[in-house]
């Protein structure tokens, strides 16, 4: 049975067992709680047995979990000890990963988990910034790989789509859309579109401009500071904006606000996240580009 079990799943199981908490284990592993819980359930499905008893106050091992934990610890420890057995272990390499504000925690967690599993000698140093400065940093060689938003068309860069989420229109409650399940952009032509300055995410801004103009939305009300500055304009019914359906700084800014997040009527529009690196550095990055291609599921 253990021949079909992934090593990373055993590592996750050991962490949860030792911490007696999914949240503490997730913090220890550098990943989000939700994907950790899913991976543990994947392991339980592979083994055909529950490994933990989950209740509101605590996490405890089942009989099956207690039977497995010793062997699981031993397997993980043996694998972790392999580099030290080499007569001249290679020095640890590092890469700098840039992440834009709308990048999901799940994407970062999945990427870091893949690196730990497939490239255990690689250190990942993270650098948060908006899309435009991250692209400049990649071109300058200061950042090796960046997770950025929108379609990247610079011939000096290679872009791999690693995540895509649906978009939502954000409008005030009481502005005529209550009770609606979707909205057409043409219905918003009487409102201006409010957004952060285009220079922070030029590819997303260009795509939004093209889409809005196509549907007759001509009003623009840009702000130049933070996502939170969009909130009073939209909540008061003076403008609308667009955000990701599941995550992102813009969506988070509207949490608990009197607004509606409505899908487009055809719901085809997507906010893409691309992993971008310099095309002439592919060889230097080794197996990393191949891992990036595994992320878009």
UniProtKB/TrEMBL annotation:
Keywords: DNA-binding, Transcription, Transcription regulation. It comes from the Bacteria. SUPFAM superfamilies: Periplasmic binding protein-like II, Winged helix' DNA-binding domain. Residues 5-62 form the HTH lysR-type domain. PANTHER family: HCA OPERON TRANSCRIPTIONAL ACTIVATOR HCAR, TRANSCRIPTIONAL DUAL REGULATOR HCAR-RELATED. Belongs to the LysR transcriptional regulatory family. This is LysR family transcriptional regulator.
